[in-house]
Amino acid sequence: MNILILASTHMFHKILMSSLLFLGLLLSMSSSYAASIAGTLSIKESELRFIDFSRYSEVEELFDTGELIIDFESQTQTKLNKNGKVLQFESPNGDHSGTGVISVAYKNIQRKILVDINIKQESTTSLISQRSSSDFSNIKDYNIFSKMPYHRLQERSLSCESSATSDVLSYLMSSKVTELSVIEKLGKSDFYNKLPVKRDVGTVWGNPNKGFVGYINSTSGVTAKQKLMTGYGVYEAPIAGVYNDYGFKTNIINGENHTENYGETEQLTQILTELASGNMVQLWGDWCTIPKYEDGDISNLSITNSKARNGEISGKNECYNVLQDRTLNWSYVNEVGEYISHEGLDGQHAFILLGWKGDITNPSHVRVWDTNTGYHEYQTIEWLRKWKAMDYRTVIIESIQKSKT
What is the pTM of this model? Predict the structure, then answer.
């Protein structure tokens, strides 16, 4: 099995034409490697993700004289080899998971870097279904809302991700799954139910790619709010882990591993195709809605489960600062003690994809369940803005439950 390591070429525009200096880049890589998609070794934008030998001759020189080796806990060693004009990871023995090291070797220089690896042979794409959007070209109005047994609003201040997951699981399993049971299984960062701290590097908090950051609910003395940086949330990989724990296969889409190669509308068509094929889709986006696209009926403070569950009344996602910069900045500590800067969003939120209006390849509206304000049909231009604000983070959940391993 060959697993292609992808990245944007702009990362290397400052690389000097020297193989030794490029080695310095390799040796400075942090250990936040995580295979968030089955079959893909995902590396963050600030780190090595792509080597195009046709553009950088000094890279080719390095790999003519040295090599990268992934050394797993099982003592299995596999080399990162040059294959054509790109770097590919070869995993001849199938699945690998657990903690291992990457050994960087060049002449007499060596360094080992701890990594978490979870590579499976099941898929080399971000998609589960093999269906094409053309299979659904005659469907101009699609909505699974009435099929879902539960449409629940979140029970805690910042539990949107767990609330959405509980509704999806309840639908797939034909059995009620509570928000609390999801929270209990959910990964927690080292700053779960903790406030950020000040250090020499600035504000330090948790890593939402690893687990929930901050307080999930207001408690005595602490109001859990993103803008106050008392609570934040969790991203797609830990949520995918919950689905996996319940026996469902998942794949992940985000701006780093997929959308660099696809336009926004094409990306949207792909997840709509997954939904029409019978799989479920959980999304991350901006909670706030630009006023001219608002479709809510009442204040979000007045919406209740009894009002929202039929989809006839929804709350408004009103933010006075919707068009202002709402970036939240902090650093988290990775597995080898390095500080990694992170940009969060005051307004990051989880949704369930329900359907669309219009042509699947160019829909006029996208239907979603918002765990805070209920059912919405957003014009596609507004939904794409919301989705992009959270880097297109998405979990695709296969509808067939498998036995737990």
Answer: 0.71
